[in-house]
């Protein structure tokens, strides 16, 4: 049976890119593979980003990320859901992998280059980010990793690290594969500047737990086809991010209606956005209600995380023992 692993950073509120790109697949694979699917709030990764690691906020964000995933349909009784810092073996395996990974390979990672360019002094944790990610996945010998397409290069490196370990120390790890949610590999930001991203801040994102009136304000202001200047101009839905969002939130009839309507100037951008908002509301309102319920019961969330960490450690411990043995650490 496949073993599934994925992680999500508590660097900000989860947005519709995380939701459609990854979280929906967590739920689908969780239903298929039960306790053989592991999901982790990666708080160790979060502190590679100094801007998102305020110690007064990190614990709350980790809690909120659990709430968001449970509200989105992940049932912690059926899958393994935990926080990364509660399973110290992640760091131990990460160190072994660090010693196998050339600095040059890490410096070539696109996300590293993009993020490092923002700092005068680059934290070395940022360079090691993908090594820790490989440790997350391989600590459970996972072979299936639901992610958005921005993580493709990191999964490639994970495969490379698995190959290298197997070569040095003997066959141990599988070479994991990324699985994508085909319709949503890269959800665009609502500001119209590239991918939606937590690290770009609130202006780029539509949070899945964001109040609906705030979402509407952002959609109302969002750019559409720049060639469509007047209401009577025909537009091109293929270059409009509102149409991208329709494909995520609206039913097929509505998608067809706005597609044809836009091309023939039969529908204006404001009405098209209102139609989108109906889909957004239908989708997110029940999710937000579930999140409210979960927030009102923090003990349930904490107990679920405690239980999840125990379940994760039970899988990780023998694999880590095997690694210690193969690497040659003295056993007493
Ligand atoms: P994070 O928290 O940045 O993103 C969580 C997931 O959301 C996907 N994603 C998107 N998908 C489509 N469109 C977007 N605009 C968009 N933005 C984000 C990401 O691809 C990701 O799947 N490095 C990981 C965290 C991680 C991890 C792991 C993942 C740590 N260890 C082990 C898998 C396995 C990340 O980027 O998280």
Automatic annotation (TrEMBL):
First-level EC class: ligase
Amino acids binding ATP: 9-11, 17-18, 148-150, 187, 195-199
Enzyme Commission numbers on file: 6.1.1.2
Predominant place of localization: cytoplasm
Residues binding L-tryptophan, per UniProt: 136
Superkingdom as given in the UniProt entry: Bacteria
Motif stretch ('HIGH' region): 10-18
Swiss-Prot/TrEMBL keywords: Aminoacyl-tRNA synthetase, ATP-binding, Cytoplasm, Ligase, Nucleotide-binding, Protein biosynthesis
Subunit structure of this chain's protein: Homodimer.
Family assignment from sequence similarity: Belongs to the class-I aminoacyl-tRNA synthetase family.
Protein name: Tryptophan--tRNA ligase
Organism: Deinococcus ficus
Gene: trpS
